[in-house]
Write a structure and sequence with these properties.
Structural class: alpha+beta
Keywords: Nucleotidyltransferase, Transferase
Shape: globular
CATH architecture of the largest domain: 2-Layer Sandwich
Helix content: 25-40%
Radius of gyration: 23 Å
CATH class of the largest domain: Alpha Beta
CATH superfamily of the largest domain: Reverse transcriptase/Diguanylate cyclase domain
GO molecular function, one term: damaged DNA binding
InterPro entries: DNA/RNA_pol_sf, DNA_pol_Y-fam_lit_finger_sf, DNA_pol_Y-fam_little_finger, DNA_polymerase-Y, IMS_HHH_1, Rev_trsase/Diguanyl_cyclase, UmuC
Protein name: DNA polymerase IV
Largest sheet: 5 strands, mixed
CATH topology of the largest domain: Alpha-Beta Plaits
Pfam families: IMS, IMS_C, IMS_HHH_1
Number of helices: 14
Number of domains: 3
Amino acid sequence: MTLRSLLVDFNSYFASVEQQVEPRLRGKPLGVVPMLADTTVCIAASVEAKTFGVKTGTKVADARKLCPQIEFVVARHEIYIDFHHRAVAVVDSVVPVRAVLSIDEMDCELTGRWREPARALKIAADVKAKLTTEIGECLRTSIGIGPNTFIAKTASDMVKPDGLVIIEKAELPDRLFHLPVRALSGVGKQMEKRLHEKGLKTVQDLCARSRDELRAIWGGIGGEIMYDRLRGEAMHERESETGSISHSSVLGPEKRNPTDAYAVLDRLIQKAAMRLRKADLYAARMSIGVKYLDGARWDADMKLVDTQDTMSFLHVLEKLWSQRPPTRRTILQVGMAFSDLVTEAKHTGSLFASEDKSKALYATLDKLNVRFGRQAVYFASAHKARDRGGLHIAFNHIPDPETER
């Protein structure tokens, strides 16, 4: 009995929730967008829209060409969060939820006799049935069952929508040989490129290499972890740690200029700094990015003494923005991220400034914004973007409506 993980992956989550809430949208191609404008992009697409080639990141104008009958709705993040919490509770009533991996994924623990294939499949069927009954018929899932979370995740991706795939340890790694390396969780564009340069294009290619060879290719223990995961070894997955705090915003047509883009970035940084303080974390690196309407990008980052001080971050923004190359390109989207995060216990701080007064000040400001709304108190440099930076969901981050409205 090697089955340890049952992973629940909701199909086309944002769009499915919209179809559940609005019956007229059911069975129709649907795109979820940040705003109604042909120059923005889809942040989600329904199962029906995906059959026409519309996917996350497809421009609205292109989506209309691919699927003339597609409908668009503006994202309603509060509803997606509500459905998420309700869905977690339903799944947990059938099988213990070990970890919430993202807004649309959760890893469940199989123990004892539940690890028997027939029983695991019965549990998966019960999860699907109860979600349909208590959450709604539009919230379809693909469920993967495997000897570790990685294999269960890989299995869940094999059949969509409404899939159910089980992979036992005895079938590994051969069962995965046909998959391209990009199909593996954790292999992004850059890693895919690195693997291709080494002649590794499929899982079969990966599995032909030794543990030491994969360590060298990954540049560290990540290669050894991948070696074991592909063979279904029990992995003591580390508890989820916050690696970064980030926000981005697609700009409306009237704000696609450097002045307004800067103000929106300013607002996003103020919002992220509040999240940082609530999590009792400090950031030692800040990055910003700009995406242009023609698809080009510009990114910059700066190392700093670990801090959670909003003014310090805004000074970094000013320095980084001054490095932006002059261009006549139209700005479509801006984003920022805090990384190299440390906890209070590991925080060193500046040798030349006392943090006590600033901490007291920010604690007061944050309380005011929680109580009276996110526009109650803010730095004036973000005034032009005071309506931006509201509640938005990244798939790997479920926002707290109290602090992120």
